[in-house]
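Work through this:
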Amino acid sequence: DETEFRNFIVWLEDQKIRHYKIEDRGNLRNIHSDDWPKSFEKYMKDVNCPFKIQERQETVDWLLGLAVRLEYGDNADKYKDSNPDGAKNADNTAKNAEPLINLDVNNPDFKAGVMALANLLQIQRHDDYLVMLKVKRLTQDAIAKANQSKEGLPVALEKHILGFDTGDAVLNEAAQILRLLHIEELRELQTKINEAIVAVQAIIADPKTDHRLGKVGR
């Protein structure tokens, strides 16, 4: 909803981000103005948001992240030593560490989930659904693939140029890793293509000749 979106932006600026002085927030607060999109676009530039105003979801996520960082920065000592409510006593800590302790295996939803999982994994059904949970289904291809060990040289990510900047160091590193993995897959594909070409050339270069028919080839 456009009105809710604009109110949300104003609330973030008023309550958490506070990039503008109070007297400079008038245009942003005037959510019913036809010029609000221009004011919002200027605001995004002023806070150095890397996304365009048309990218609503990305913009919301980025502004929320900025608000959280600023909130933490203003109250670092308060949040630094805080613990989750469930960790205030040993019992709650144990329960949080073992989420399956209080699982009700007789719950109809649990049974339905087991059956759905069995169908997904193509596990043969059993009258006792608990028995199905113990089944390990590994195909021969999966076993062979798991037994293949691939060793390579360590890669220094800083030596590989990504070509673009996400604005986040962690995301940049993840993108570099994905790009290197993609390159590896392309190399494997190229190797298979080369092998196929060699096989075809071997057939073409060694034809069977039948002089009686006056033909060369298979």
